Amino acid sequence: QQPVQSPQAVILREGEDAVINCSSSKALYSVHWYRQKHGEAPVFLMILLKGGEQKGHEKISASFNEKKQQSSLYLTASQLSYSGTYFCGTEILESGSARQLTFGSGTQLTVLP
Amino acid sequence: NAGVTQTPKFQVLKTGQSMTLQCAQDMNHNSMYWYRQDPGMGLRLIYYSASEGTTDKGEVPNGYNVSRLNKREFSLRLESAAPSQTSVYFCASNFDRDTIQPQHFGDGTRLSIL
Known about the structure:
The complex is a heterodimer.
Chain A: E1 4-6, E2 9-13, E3 18-23, E4 28-36, E5 43-49, E6 55-57, E7 60-65, E8 70-75, E9 84-92, E10 102-103, E11 107-112
Parallel strand pairs in A: 2-11
Antiparallel strand pairs in A: 1-3, 3-8, 4-5, 4-9, 6-7, 7-8, 9-10, 9-11
Chain B: E1 4-7, E2 10-13, E3 19-25, E4 31-38, E5 42-49, E6 56-57, E7 64-68, E8 74-78, E9 87-94, E10 104-105, E11 109-113
Parallel strand pairs in B: 2-11
Antiparallel strand pairs in B: 1-3, 3-8, 4-5, 4-9, 5-6, 7-8, 9-10, 9-11
């Protein structure tokens, strides 16, 4: 089951903040966040675990709400280098299922000067 | 550091032709993955190899075969290419699939099938 990301796209001015959400209809074990610039490979940002705390990477942080089966990625004081497409990958809790990541369709973030 | 290397970077095929996409990693990772990325669809898992000598189907395996040649190399084969297989293909690896590990991606192979 593909996780749902919102919004699909967001445009910011440098220095503004943004929040990207990733929701699943199934119980999650972990959520992985990646950023991909146009024509390049996805680059790992962080992993959120069930029962884990909020994580941070530069001015980018994320949280995991187990009750809502949702993760949110927070970008504060955005920089031009933050532009790209952000993907969440989710790992579900399901007995007998093989562990694998299912990725959302992505959120395209554009930071303008 | 090379990381994950994919070849070729670009390829154009005619319908019905066959082709093998190559992937090699130099990080001593146990697990390797093949994804395809289509516009608006995110990354979809085709096949993965949890360790040398094992392979398993992912979400969209039809029309593909894989070979885990050794610990470093994991190839993806299209036996009879179809236009629906036009996509960007990414190979990824991580140390151990049974623990929580980030995946490291190659630069991708852009494949067009006419």
